[in-house]
C-alpha cells in the first residue's frame, strides 16, 4: 500500500455531495404548557453550528442540521433554502472549523483517525468548497505527512490563495517538519512560501500574508523557542524560550502592531487568569495590558475579518461574556442588549465592513434564536430557532452556585432545577464535565435540560483542575485526578443534600468523556453515595488513554501533563476497581468515536459482567464522540431515561426512603 493511501482521509471526496435540495420539515406540534417535552425535542440537532457570514455579509456558511445529520451548507441569506450548496460529512471525520475565502469559497478543516504503520494516527487536511458550483477541492492532499491543515492566513482582497503549513513525511527527516505553502482554493495548486526548518513545528503569519514567526519545539526536552522575523528583515532570530513541561510560558503573538516589532499575545495575568498584553517581540518587554477581565479568563478573541485589529474579547464572565474594544462594535452590542435585556446576546459573526451581523439570543433555559442584523437600517430579522421543537419556551432554570470542598477550596458549578417540581429533596444528578481541562458555563445544555425536564435536579461542578478560574486553580488538580478532583464532585452532592435540594438516597452520577471516567470512578471511590452511574464515551483505563496521542509531535509533553495529574494511572482507573462498585452502570459509546476509543467501554462492560456486577451497554453503530446525528442523540437520551427510570425513578416509587 502506498503512503498516499495510508494518509488520505479515505473516501472523503466520494462521500461529498454538491448542490442538494432540502426542504425543512414542519415544526413539531407544541405540547401543553404544563406537559413535559418529549425526548425528541431535546434530541434535535441545533439549526446551525459554527455559523459564519461571508465578508460581504450576504451569505451564510455553517454546519446545518439537515435530515437529522449535519451538513456543510452555504446559503444566500433571504433566498430559497432549496438553492443552498450542501456537503455531506464523511463518516469518522470531524469538521473542526469553517472559514470563508472571499465571498465564493469556504474551506473546512477536517480530522480523521486512521491506522498508519499499525497504530492509530490523527490525520488533518483541508477541503475547499465552491459556493457557485458546489465542487469540493482537496488542498495539500498530495503531501505525505500527518498534518496539512494549519491555516495561517486568508486574503481579503478577492484573491484565492491562502497560506497553509503542512508536513510532507511521517519519518524523521526535514520533510517531517512543516513547510508553508500558498494554495489556490479554486484549483488546489500550491507553491512553496517558506521552506521547512528542522525543529519548527508551527508557523505564523501577519494580516498581510507574510510569515513572521516559527515555533521551534523538541519533544525530548519539551523546550520551545520563538523565531521571529521583523517587518523589514529577511532572516529569523531567536526571541523567546520556554520549557513547557515546567509550565513556562512562550509568548506567541496573535496580532502584529503595524510599523514595528510589537505584537498582541494572550498571557497569564497577575491573578493567573489570561489577559491580552502588548509586548516587544524582539526584547520580550511588556508594553501594556490591552485587556484584563476582573475575575474572568479569556475564552476567545474577536478580530477584524482581515486580521489586522482586535475588536473584542470573549470571557467566561456570565454577566459580561464579551467586551468590545472597538467603539462601533460596543455600540452595536449596547443596542442589541437593550432589545433583549433578559437574555444573552452574542454577535456570532460579522461582515468585513461590520455592517451585517449574525446575532444569537439565548438563555441557559432556551437554546436560542438566530438573527440577521443590518446595522444601517437597524433591522433585526429572525433567521431560525436553534431548536424548532423547543422554540422560545423557557425550560428549567439554571444558575451558578458555589460551595466549599472538604479542604476549603471554593468550587463553582451550574445548578439546574426542574421547572415543574419544588426544589426540595429532588432525585438528583451530578454531571462532571469532560476534558478535564474545560469548564461548564451558564449556557443552554441539552443533557442538563433533558434531565431536569424529567424531574431531576442537575449539578455540573467545575472541580479543581477546570479551566476558566486561573492558573492556580488549574494546577490544584495536579496529582489529584481520582482524588481531590473526584472529591470536589462528591462534595457538590453533599452540598445539595445539606441545602435540602437533593434526596441523599436518590443520587446518580452522569458524564461524558472525562466526565464518563468520573462517573465510573465515582461509583468505585464512593460506592455508597451513588444509586447509579451513566458513562458516555468514558475512559475506563487511564493508562491506555494517556499513552495514546495518535503520534502527536508533542506526545511526550502531553503524557507529561497527564502524569502530573495522578501518581498512578492504574490505581485510579475504574477498570481496576470493579470489586468496589455496588451501583448499576450504564455504558453508552459510539463506534465512530475518534476521540475516546469505543474499546474503552467494551472492556469495562466485559469486566463488569465477568465480576457479576449490574451493567448495561448501548453501543451506537454510527455515533461519533459528540453524537452529532439526531438519531444517535435520540438513542442516547432514551437509554439514559430508561436506565434512570429503572434505577432512580424521578417519582421515587421504589425509593426505600419513601
TrEMBL record:
InterPro entries: AB_hydrolase_fold, Peptidase_S9_cat
Protein origin, superkingdom: Bacteria
Gene3D superfamilies reported in the protein's UniProt record: alpha/beta hydrolase
Residues passing through the membrane, by range: none
Annotated signal peptide: 1-21
Keywords, ordered alphabetically: Hydrolase, Signal
Keyword NADP assigned: no
GO MF terms, alphabetically ordered: serine-type endopeptidase activity
GO biological process, one term: proteolysis
Domain Peptidase S9 prolyl oligopeptidase catalytic: 446-647
Keyword Metal-binding: no
Protein name stated in the entry: Peptidase S9 prolyl oligopeptidase catalytic domain-containing protein
Native source organism of the sequence: Sphingopyxis macrogoltabida
Upper classification of the organism: Bacteria, Pseudomonadati, Pseudomonadota, Alphaproteobacteria, Sphingomonadales
Amino acid at each position: 500500500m502506498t503512503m498516499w493511501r495510508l494518509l488520505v482521509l479515505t473516501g472523503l471526496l466520494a462521500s461529498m455531495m454538491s448542490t442538494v435540495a432540502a426542504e425543512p420539515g414542519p415544526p413539531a406540534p407544541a405540547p401543553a404548557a404544563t406537559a413535559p417535552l418529549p425526548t425528541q425535542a431535546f434530541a434535535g440537532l441545533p439549526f446551525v453550528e459554527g455559523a459564519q457570514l461571508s465578508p460581504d455579509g450576504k451569505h451564510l456558511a455553517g454546519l446545518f442540521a439537515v435530515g437529522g445529520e449535519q451538513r456543510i451548507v452555504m446559503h444566500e441569506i433571504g433566498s430559497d433554502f432549496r438553492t443552498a450548496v450542501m456537503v455531506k460529512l464523511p463518516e469518522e471525520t470531524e469538521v473542526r472549523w469553517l472559514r470563508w475565502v472571499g465571498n465564493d469559497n469556504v474551506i473546512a478543516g477536517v480530522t480523521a483517525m486512521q491506522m498508519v504503520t499499525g497504530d492509530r494516527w490523527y490525520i488533518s487536511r483541508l477541503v475547499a468548497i465552491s459556493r457557485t458550483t458546489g465542487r469540493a477541492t482537496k488542498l495539500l492532499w498530495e503531501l505525505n505527512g500527518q498534518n496539512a491543515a494549519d491555516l495561517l492566513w486568508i486574503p481579503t482582497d478577492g484573491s484565492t490563495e491562502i497560506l497553509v503549513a503542512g508536513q510532507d513525511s511521517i519519518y524523521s527527516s526535514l520533510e517531517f517538519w512543516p513547510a508553508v505553502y500558498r494554495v489556490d482554493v479554486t484549483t488546489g495548486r500550491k507553491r512553496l512560501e517558506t521552506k521547512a526548518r528542522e525543529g519548527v513545528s508551527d508557523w505564523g503569519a501577519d494580516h498581510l500574508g507574510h510569515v513572521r514567526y516559527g515555533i521551534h519545539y523538541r519533544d525530548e526536552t519539551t523546550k520551545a523557542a520563538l523565531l521571529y522575523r521583523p517587518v523589514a528583515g529577511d532572516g529569523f532570530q531567536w526571541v523567546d524560550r520556554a520549557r513547557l513541561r515546567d509550565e513556562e510560558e512562550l509568548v506567541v503573538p496573535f496580532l502584529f502592531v503595524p510599523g514595528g516589532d510589537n505584537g498582541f499575545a494572550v498571557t497569564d495575568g497577575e491573578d493567573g487568569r489570561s489577559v491580552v498584553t502588548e509586548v516587544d517581540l524582539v526584547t520580550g518587554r511588556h508594553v501594556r495590558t490591552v485587556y484584563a477581565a476582573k475575575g474572568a479568563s479569556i475564552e476567545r478573541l474577536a478580530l477584524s475579518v482581515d486580521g489586522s485589529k482586535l475588536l473584542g474579547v470573549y470571557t467566561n464572565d456570565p454577566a459580561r461574556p464579551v467586551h468590545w474594544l472597538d467603539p462601533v462594535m460596543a455600540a452595536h452590542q449596547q443596542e442589541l442588549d437593550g432589545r433583549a435585556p433578559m437574555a444573552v446576546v452574542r454577535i456570532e459573526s460579522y461582515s468585513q465592513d461590520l455592517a451585517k451581523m449574525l446575532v444569537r439570543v439565548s438563555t441557559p433555559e432556551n437554546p436560542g434564536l438566530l438573527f440577521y442584523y443590518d446595522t444601517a437600517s437597524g433591522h433585526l430579522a429572525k433567521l431560525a430557532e436553534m431548536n424548532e421543537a423547543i422554540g422560545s419556551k423557557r425550560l428549567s432554570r439554571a444558575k451558578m452556585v458555589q460551595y466549599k470542598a472538604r479542604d476549603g477550596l471554593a468550587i463553582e458549578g451550574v445548578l439546574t432545577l426542574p421547572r415543574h417540581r419544588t426544589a426540595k429533596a429532588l432525585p438528583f444528578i451530578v454531571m462532571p464535565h469532560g476534558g478535564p481541562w474545560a469548564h461548564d458555563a451558564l449556557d443552554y445544555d441539552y443533557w442538563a435540560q433533558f434531565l431536569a425536564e424529567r424531574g431531576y435536579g442537575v449539578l455540573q461542578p467545575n472541580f479543581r483542575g477546570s479551566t476558566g478560574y486561573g492558573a492556580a486553580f488549574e494546577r490544584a488538580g495536579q496529582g489529584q485526578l481520582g482524588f481531590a478532583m473526584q472529591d470536589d464532585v462528591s462534595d457538590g452532592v453533599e452540598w445539595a443534600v445539606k441545602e435540602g435540594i437533593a434526596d441523599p438516597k436518590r443520587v446518580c452520577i452522569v458524564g461524558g468523556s472525562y466526565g464518563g471516567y468520573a462517573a465510573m470512578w465515582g461509583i468505585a471511590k464512593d460506592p455508597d453515595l451513588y444509586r447509579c452511574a451513566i458513562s458516555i464515551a468514558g475512559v475506563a483505563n487511564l493508562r491506555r488513554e494517556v499513552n495514546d496521542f495518535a503520534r502527536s509531535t508533542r506526545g511526550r509533553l502531553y503524557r507529561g501533563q497527564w502524569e502530573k495529574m495522578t501518581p498512578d494511572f492504574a490505581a485510579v482507573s475504574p477498570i481496576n476497581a470493579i470489586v468496589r462498585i455496588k451501583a448499576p452502570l450504564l455504558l453508552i459509546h459510539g463506534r465512530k468515536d475518534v476521540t475516546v476509543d469505543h474499546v474503552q467501554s467494551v472492556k469495562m462492560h466485559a469486566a463488569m459482567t465477568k465480576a457479576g456486577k449490574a451493567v448495561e451497554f448501548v453501543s451506537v453503530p454510527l455515533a461519533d464522540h459528540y453524537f452529532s446525528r439526531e438519531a444517535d442523540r435520540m438513542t442516547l437520551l432514551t437509554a439514559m431515561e430508561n436506565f434512570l427510570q429503572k434505577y432512580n425513578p424521578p417519582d421515587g416509587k421504589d425509593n426505600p426512603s419513601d
